[in-house]
Amino acid sequence: MTLRHARRPLLLAALLGLGLSTLPSPGQAIEAVPNRTRLTPAQQRTLFSEWRQLSLKTNQERITILQQYQGCLSAAGSLEAMRTCQQRQRQALINQRQQPGGGSPQSQPQPDGTPMI
Q1: What pLDDT is recorded for position 44?
Q2: Predicted confidence (pLDDT) per residue in 18-64, tens digit
Q3: Which of 2, 12, 95, 109 is the most exposed place for a label (fewest CB within 10 A)?
Q4: Cβ-proximal residues to 66 (8 Å cutoff; 6+ apart), any chain
């Protein structure tokens, strides 16, 4: 075993020790988690209904954008025309995300109130 290989366990132990010393203790970790507000069943139903409607709306908007992109690509007769189609699609998706209430459902909270990641 070379000196270099002999140092590996020591280096690993040092790194693990350093990493463990910087982690919060279990009691600290629990305190760092904010208290979540519990929703009533009625609030959960309302939130679910609104979230589902938003999901359906944004999905339909994306489908429309994709259909327009497909039509544009089908009509494109050159590489430049195809690039124009891509730019239009990209801009349409950006605009859709920036609309109030727009964006993907992933950017909205889940029905239980927790954010999607």
Answers
A1: 92
A2: 444 455 555 555 555 566 678 899 999 999 999 999 999 999 999 99
A3: 2
A4: 89
Q: How confident is the model at residue 100 (pLDDT cuts 50, 70, 90)?
A: confident
Q: For 113, left (φ over 0), alpha (ψ -120 to 50), or beta?
A: left
Closest CA to 73 of 82, 83, 63: 82
**88 Cβ contact list (under 8 Å, min separation 6):** 68, 69, 72
The token pair that represents 40 in the structure block: 């009533």
Interatomic CA distance for residues 2 and 64, integer angstroms: 64
Q: What is the CA radius of gyration of the chain?
A: 25
